[in-house]
Sequence to fold (255 residues):
Amino acid sequence: MFGLVPKKIWSTLVPVDEDNLISMEANLFVLKAGNINILFDTGLGDCLSMQEKKIYSATGDTNIETGLKRIGLGSDDIHVVFLSHLHTDHAGGAVKNVGGKYMPRFRNARYFVQKIEWNDCMNPNERTAAVYIPERMSALEKTDQLELIDGDADILPGIRVVRTGGHTPGHQAIEATANGTTVVYYADILPSSHHVKIPYIAAVDLNPLETMAIKRELIKRLLKCNGAIVFDHDIDIKIGRLTEEDKKVIVKKIE
Fold:
């Protein structure tokens, strides 16, 4: 999760176990835009193979339905599913197993994915085959719920997707602005509050220089506009606001 940064440095930020693993969560967010409910990513879901459960050290059940219920929604109330990218920990929950067949979990939703990301997922290589599962994701196309985007686009008034690249060539972010307030979700470009440091980049990023560049610019903008950012893998800070103290960028938790 911290790439070339020495363990002696990053381990002061997060606890590490005897297998050199750190604990993370797959945080999912719902954005309400008028009568439209938008879900940011879908987590691991409940279709994992035994091998995948071992790889991710996945514990417990998916919280998609129970989490939605807590805010008064069900799967049928989701109108847009924004998928930052199609790695299993972000897109696995987009589908469910119904009688041995994969089906979209949210039957009333459009699934927004970058075109280049979709093509990469459908044609994984030796490096990406463990995280792209085309037979699972292809269910979105079969029901005609897939919405492919080519680059930056406005998907609703005040809501914009930005193709970032970096983590994957087709990785995308979402930015929402209302009443002068901006909230952004940059997924694995900034997976936790610890990753606001520019060189702190996961080793799985396919183009770390792109990640650094987009992160550098984003942090400048958030500091200037006092915008909020949501983190996809942070355990402690789900939503934060950036501030600068002694020339260091600090993340303040927003409840």
